[in-house]
Amino acid sequence: MAVNPTTPPALTTARPVVLVADDCTLHRTATTAMLERAGFDTVAVADGSAAVEAVARRNPELMVLDAVMPTMSGFEAIAAIRSRPEYATVPAIVVSGLDDIQSRLDAFAIGADDFITKPVVAEELVARVRALLRVADVWSGRVGGLIARFGEIRQRIEETQPSCDPIETARAIQRLFPDEVGCSTFRIVAPDGVEAWTDAPPAAVANALARPGVADASRPVVAAHGHARCPLCGSRGDDRVVLAAAAGRWENGTAQLLIGCVRVGDRTAFALAGEIAAACTAVLSESARERAERAALRARIDDVLEVGGFDAHFQPIVDMCDGRILAFEALARFDDGTRPDVMFDAAASVDRMAELEIATARRAVERARGLPPGIEVHVNVSPTTATRPELAEILAASDRPITLEVTENEPLSPNTAERIRATLPPDSSLAVDDVGAGYAGLNLLLAVRPDIIKIDRAIVSSVHHDPARQAIVAGLVQFARSIGATTVAEGIELVEEAETLLHLGINRGQGYLFARPQPVGEAATAVVAGMKVGPDVCGQIERPAAPTTMTASST
Questions:
Q1: For the chain, what is the radius of gyration of the CA atoms?
Q2: pTM to 2 decimals?
């Protein structure tokens, strides 16, 4: 069917819902009829307690309540409804047969927005309902604009202050809205109740956040009103409420934030304070959750350090031509089965990396005493740890040559390399580990001039059928010769990889193809017996002549 382009499409706009509460059946029926003829949907109840239940069930846009009803009066119903933040801004009209000043004052004191005397005139009631809904729409628009502005400011704070202390971030957020929120500061509400205000330094605030037992609340709740004095600004009186919000439950508790006070009926401030409270609380609770996780992780690392829950295993570095063991790399193994990279990453995240690296290096040097005299041992540390005096003492006490493998999890500068060399014993060497996977580039290798370049398994893996990897390895071999360094290929698992590396000029290798890391006793036995690692496999490897464009690697 053709559609006339000049005909506007049909609109399906939901009708506003109005709650009508009146114990008189005649009045209740008449009021609902007036409103429904004017284009509203209605929910009709006969007393105040039913009105409270109906609000939670239907979420009306406006309420019309009789002042005097059995069970619960209209005044009491409004007070009960207003005590819940999600309904605190729903417009309310009180209808009463009393026309005295005190009744009007009582109605406005408990939060009514308008007052109509009986008998109700249909046109007046509809006009007042529409007027209040227009005001509510304007208010909602203003709140929406403020919340949008708040979101932009919060995003800007997070982008420009990513490392800012969370408590200071929360304060910065709130300081941007001094006019919209009654108070310009905030405090943390301890989990044992809203009266436990804290005006304390960050350490005490963190303790309050970490305490369990706070009830979840996704929206602001009224913590005190009327006679209570605001603990933030000292304001006191029947025209103010104090707001609190809780959010962000984690294993050890939930952060609860007290934020400001606003005047009763100031819907914009109430809504905006809730948004600010929720945002600040989210920042603080996330910080508290992270602090709890970090504290648990730090305790775990400290326990590993205290009890010495680790040992050193030794993986051979072999001559790929004949399988002879040339040296061993000492690798940490943890008693609880945690992978070394996971444990060291965890230690780094709680500022325990140096302590753990030094402890495992000490254990490696101690265990290496069980190897035959003279056999070289490689020990891994980060550049920062490599400059620590404690490590120099450990290496100096070694009974054999030590190669210090500096890992590439952080940059290694020429100055740092010189400081490391100055602390090494005379018979020790400096190696750059994991070349090709971290920070080291050719310029840095040239500046540092390590004695050994260990090519990372990411380059070695599948090198036999990847020309690009072969080109990188060939370049590193040439580069190592130019600075007088030795090359070692790590992570070799296939015979084809070893054959290709031999073709490219590398004869020192390490990986599962030859041997896995093993306790010192097994490693010592292999050396004493003159065992050639992986004899069945290595016997298959015949080193061909190096390509004419290549020269043999130094050994």
A1: 38
A2: 0.55
